[in-house]
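User: Continuing from earlier, I have the next pair ready.

Assistant: Great, send them over.

User: Here they are, in order.

Assistant: Folding the first of the pair now:
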Amino acid sequence: MATLTASITGGCLTGTTTLNQDLQIGAPQVGIASTPVGTCSGAYQTWYLSVQPSGVASNYNWTTGPVSGNNFISISNSIGSSTYADVKGGGPVNLTYVDQCGVSHTDGVTIYSSCHSTFAAFTLSPNPATTTVMISSTPDASSFAPAADAKTGTHDLRVTNPATIEQINIFDVSGKLRKTFRYSTKLSQTEINVADLIPGIYFLEIRNGSQTTHEKIIIRR
């Protein structure tokens, strides 16, 4: 961005008038708009990704970044200005494009699924949060087993394998890692400090051994 200053004297004007005008130098910048759409399909969530603003670049190419473990991302259209992506767990989606000056660029965004299938979920409280967040494991159906009471002859469900927390990563909406919490012992509940994060939407990556769960949290003040 540059500023052009011009002084005009004479003509129909009396005295000297100075006009300031901001000029865009180079090609317009391109960003990625990302929005979850529809409802859960098992553990999968669909996202709609689009280039903003449209029509200012070309040669679009959407690709997935490195994903591991139980994470999976499928892109429906890899060469358009917009696309849908189905995600289980979470991970990065990258966009390369050529601007109006013929320069190639790469941008990216991280998408997550808050849908749960056989993986344990976690509750975040409060959400929205201001300074701290309590994260607690919430066992799903696969974590329960029937147990008989010998005295009464009744049966109930008891937790057999509750989820634990080994590491928590916090990402912003652009996919940048903002904070990491590591624990030497496995926890079923922990409180984390988010007071240094600016207000906005963030994604928590909660690791439990080989399993990874993703949750969305809003920081509001």
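And the other member of the pair:
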Amino acid sequence: MPASLQSGGTHVGYKAGALVTFSANRTLYSVMASYLARPAGLRVQTSAFSDEEIIARVLAGDTALYEILMRRYNQRLFRIARTILRDEDEAEDVMQDAYVRAYASLDQFAGRAQFSTWLTKIAVYEALSRLRKRKSLQEVPASSDREDWERQRMESVKSSGPDPEQEALRHEAVSFLEQAVDALPEKYRCVFVLRDIEEMSTGETAACLDITEETVKIRLLRARQMLRDELYTRAGVTSSQAFHFLGMRCDRIVHRVFDQLSNLSSK
């Protein structure tokens, strides 16, 4: 894994598992202070601002706007981190680390590459680093663990339709699709999630995974073949419904990141 990330010609200091030193002229206290100063329950709304515009405003001192970027990319980072690690709790830890590291190096982001690609790459590197540290890789959860996971997932589902039985069947189908994706070998799984679930371009996917565009195309074709078209027919759902990271979970990541940034600024 590279020791640094690169945005255009600018190298961004990055080392998995290590804290990043923040530049002296940027204090993280302002992030938490401005966040807490807002009325209780108020959340930064989805903005029409581009990533580059938000970054410029954050660097200019409007640090609370960093929340928009987190909420904008929570879904993507969760999906790719979970795809690599196959562990939802650890995926959230990766997300938190990625956001903190990205914030630490925000003033080094040159803008010659897309911010979304740069951020996703940080998450990919962190997830792969954690994966390498595991003694037992790609272990399939025991059947009892899988049953507990499915039970917890179903209990968290709130039916929005008039037919609870149909709603339960739909979520069971989504879970079935997620299990099928989990069963793919890692190199195919990562490409499939970024291209077909996150709908990233071939070029973006190649940049995030450090592979060629041709390799992306080959792996995506193979992944689709392995999943088989009939899987989608039987599941009755689209792949974009898999691995959702919304609502309270999204809020939790935002709060955790701000908490960590605040703690770092007090050291």
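Worth noting for the second one:
Residues 66-85 form the longest helix (20 residues). The radius of gyration is 19 Å.
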